[in-house]
Amino acid sequence: MKFIFCVIAFTLFPFLILHAQVSNNPYKPNKGELLEAYRRIALLDSTVGKNIYNLDLKPNWHADNSGFWYTSFSAGMRSVYEVNALSTKKKKILDDQYLLKAVNDFTGERFNLSDVKFSDSLFSEGLNIARFMVKQQWYTLNLKTNILNRLNGAGNAGKIKHNILFKKWNKSGATTKNSPNNEWTVFVMQHNIFLRKVKTKDTVQLTIDGTPELGYGEIVWSPDSKYFLAYKIRKVEAKNVYTVRSSVPNTTRGELVSTPYFQPGDENSSFEMYVFNAELKKQQIKVDMSKIDFNGPPEIHFSFDSRKFLFNRPDRGNLRFRIIEVNAAEGMTKNIVDEQANTFIYLWRVYTKFLPKSHEIIWSSEKDGYRHLYLVDVRSKNIKPITSGNWVVRGIDSVDVEKREIWFQASGMVRGEDPYNVHFYKINFSGNNLVALTPEVGNHKVKYAPDMRYFVDSYSQVNLPPVHELRRSSDGKKLTDLERSDVSYLEKNKIKTMMPFTAKGRDGVTDIYGVVCFPFNLDKGKSYPVVENIYAGPHDSFVPKNFVAYGEMQSMADLGFIVVQIDGMGTANRSKAFHDVCWKNLVDAGFPDRMLWIKAMAKKYPFADTSRVGIYGTSAGGQNSLGALLFHPDFYKAAVSSCGCHDNRVDKQPWNEQWMGYPVAKHYEEQSNVTHAANLKGKLMLILGENDANVPPESTYRVADALIKAKKDFELLTIPGAGHTDGGPYGRRRKRDFFIQNLLNVPSIDWNSL
Q1: How far is the C-alpha of 432 from the C-alpha of 444, rounded, in Å?
Q2: 185 SS3 class
Q3: How far apart are CA 661 and CA 674, in angstroms?
Q4: Which residues pair with 459 in a beta bridge?
Q5: If you write DSSP's letter for every residue of 386-418 in order, what string do you get?
């Protein structure tokens, strides 16, 4: 035993000596060094994005999907290439220097390259005619004849705006709606349902019990025009939250702003479902089901013969999800899917695709521990897995009903690779013939051709810039290389990239993933404070997986910090058990995993000083960063909390009830930062925007009130006119100064004297 102890001591002795030497030599920049670091940050913030090229590639596909053109960027020039997907040949067809010369020769002016603008409308009339703008003037250039024309007005070359319609129940239901065959019109008058024959104008009142408090609406017709649905609605208006615009121009008064806002526990509108037979003109048939009081009226999916219809029904509290079938003639219901869980069902990630011709539904669920796809037979209620395994379906791109194929995204399927990396696949409805379309290591982004025969695959890692390739969808075969990102500017300017790091979590088994940013002038003989960028919202994972050229984390590191970001337990995109840690437990925020990760990182990099750890975050991250000081003050010493949802009773209903459950119970109060404000240790800065419509400002003000009553010292920065924010450029500079003072332990720049 003594021998073993001696061997271990001898092995660790050099490391312990090195660690002690580093810890006793903290990095302490002087005023000149700090000022130079700030100048460097300001320069890089404004120049990096302009000097790295081809981080993305957007294909513009031809009408016949046989190929596409795209724009490639390099220092001082943009080039346009055409790619023939059939022959895999790529050729340059244009560059902006050619366009510039043509315009200068035509006008006699001397425009610059920066004056030349073109977009997706460059070849709106085919590859022979280039349409572009110089100094707000549109031109066309015939690439075969070299004839340049100046266009009047906009030349019809502006961008097309696409309206994205978000379903909101209280705006989507029409009060008048024609049947698909245009024989009938249903309308609501004085809160009741009326049915009118279009040709004869004969009108029948179908309901008599509608009132202002319980009126009918939200009409949905069956495809055969025989049945229609309507709801008896008890409408509940959201109560307002209020902010004040304090700095409105041309007035000496603040402006009150009111915003409708549902909070956890608030009563929702309710809907009772009724079915009507237009041909029989019967009184309504109430569907044999309790009223819907969560998530608004559902989307209705009729069977191929219109005799039945299906819809999704999640229960409030997210512990039960059903797919319900209704017999339209009788109003009787049957549960086709009835999933019940002990913890949350993640409603926002539930996918359903209704296939009326084959009486099937494609449905996603985490019932077996990971998010997977299932094929549901509506007639037999038989449920068969399409995908399975210890990995996660991340998204569905397309469903080919004729070929019975699903194109989807997944992560965690490739052993030995970061389990968050997204790859693309396709599979048969039967679960056979799984095809990996993007085999290269990395996080993938795919842009399919409209007919799905080909796709552009762009993949990268946080420290490896993107590669762009053309691949074939039938088997994922690479057809040709397209571009590689040019990030040589980073090396020329000694800009460090994020580094991935992995350590074991609280259970000693599960890998926890994160990234580390080091100072550009790192001296391994000195020690540096650690600052964590936290966002532990359970709705996703947040550690970047795509290449990051330069950003907020690296700019902060360049001031003299080791800056990290970690996805602890309780966040999404891993197993259900990994995610379940957050259930009614947002106060956990993965901190047991985060602290172990930071300690493991410091073992590998002894210049990381875990006696000086700071943390910052916005929104849910603001809640987390203050929670670090309230619940883990022995580890975290300083925090900047921006626009935090510090009390989950104050924040928006859908997000908080998804994770904290319904009804609102004692655990909401027990986990509130307001409740525990008197336990504050360490240094704290609170930041908020006075017009935050996402998380009401009182969430932060209630914390401030509790801190004042507890006689605690803290800093409070309110940004006039700002919404949901980390403070913007001013707030970010104040955050950096705060950590300089409280972790580097040196004075920050006296900005007022500069």
Answers
A1: 23
A2: strand
A3: 19
A4: 444, 467
A5: SS-SSSEEEEEEEEETTTTEEEEEEES-STTS-
Question: How far is Cα 681 from Cα 595, in angstroms, rounded to an integer?
Answer: 17
- Flag whether the pTM goes above 0.85: yes
d(CA 560, CA 742): 13
Closest CA to 558 of 487, 498, 515: 498
Token code pair at residue 663: 């009804």
What pLDDT was estimated at residue 23?
66
- Residue 21, pLDDT score: 57
Residues in the chain predicted with pLDDT less than 50, given as ranges, are: 1, 4-5, 7-9, 154-173
Quick one: what percent of the chain has pLDDT higher than 90?
A: 89
| Element of type H or E holding 504 | strand 499-504
Output the six-digit token pair for 390.
Answer: 């210890």
Under a CB-based contact definition with an 8 Å cutoff, are residues 664 and 265 in contact? yes
Give residue-wise pLDDT tens across range 400-459.
999 999 999 999 999 999 999 999 999 999 999 999 999 999 999 999 999 999 999 999
**Per-residue confidence (pLDDT) for residue 385, from 0 to 100:** 98
> How high is the pLDDT of residue 309?
98
Question: Which residues is 471 bridged to in the sheet?
Answer: 455, 478
Task: Tell me which long-range contacts 186-192 makes (C-beta under 8 A, separation of at least 24).
Answer: 186/219, 186/221, 186/228, 186/230, 186/276, 186/278, 188/215, 188/216, 188/217, 188/219, 191/215, 191/216, 192/216
What is each CA distance from 119 to 71, 92, 124, 131, 423, in whole angstroms? 9, 17, 10, 9, 29
CB 565 within 8 A of CB 514: yes
- Structure-token match 């010493």, residue found: 637
DSSP letter string, 546-576: S---S-HHHHHHTTT-EEEEEE-BTBSSS-H
State whether residue 698 is helix, strand or coil: helix
Helices 591-604, 620-631: crossing angle, 10 deg rounding:
80
Q: Which residues pair with 453 in a beta bridge?
A: none
- Tokens 């029904």, located at residue: 313
- Supply the pLDDT for residue 405: 98
The Cα–Cα gap between 739 and 34 comes to 13
For residue 176, the model assigns a pLDDT of 82
Amino acid at 528: Y
φ, ψ of residue 254 in degrees (nearest 5): -70, 155
Cα of 653 vs its chain's centroid, Å: 18
pLDDT of residue 193: 96
**Hey, what amino acid is at 174?**
A
Q: Give Cα 718 distance to the centre of its chain.
A: 26
> Among 744, 636, 726, 745, which residue's Cα sits nearest to residue 684?
636
Tokens of 457: 């695959």
Measure CA 297 to chain center.
25
Among candidate residues 542, 740, 541, 716, the one with its CA nearest the CA of residue 626: 716
